Every structure is written in structure tokens, then in C-alpha cells.
Amino acid sequence: MTRQEVFDYCHKQYKTGPDYPWKNNNAVLRHSDNNKWYGLVMTVNAKKMGVLCEDEIDILNVKCDPILIGSLRMQAGFFPAYHMNKDKWISIWLAKSGNDEIVKNLIDWSFRATAAKKKKNSKEI
Asked: What's the whole-model pTM score?
């Protein structure tokens, strides 16, 4: 997947677009109702991800089920979260993730996990 494909998918599924709070190429994907992040697309040096090359790569950080993180990180293109809680977030090298459906499923999971919590109606019996 490319960063543009991620943005297109998020726009189609959730009617959200990238937000550029740092005035550079790094983009936040956030809920329109609560402003919580559900994704972060960044361009980083591959060495920062433990890859032995000098290339700049696009990564996507998403919140992830902690039970899945260990097995995902054993696959090519998945890393401990860069600049996020490594127990609850994962970084995906977009060009090397291998399966767009997995990436889309992880975006969906992250979107649901960061959604606004519904308040219980105190008048309910």
C-alpha cells in the first residue's frame, strides 16, 4: 500500500482525511468527533526501524490488539511502534507489508479502538 492508498481508504470508510499538524510530510488520521488519532503516517529513515539501508520509508502506526502485536512483528514489514506505545501500537512499512487487506483490517481495528465511548443513559433501569 502507499500512503495515498491509506488516505483514500480512510476517506472512503470513515470520511476522514490526513491532518498535517507539523507542516511536513507526516500525517495524522483522526476521528472527526473526538479528534483521537487512529493512525499516523510518517516518512522515516529505514535505520530507525532496524532496516540496514539509508532509504526514507513510509510507515503507518495504528493501534492494535496487544495479543496480535507479537505475531505481526514476526512478519516482514511490521515493527514495534515508532514513537508510540509499543504494547498497544504497531508500525507498518507500507511498501513491505505484503497484504493490503491486513493493513486495512488493522486500520479498521484502530479506528474502532480509538472511537468515542458511548455513555450509558443514567435513566435506564
From this structure: 0.89
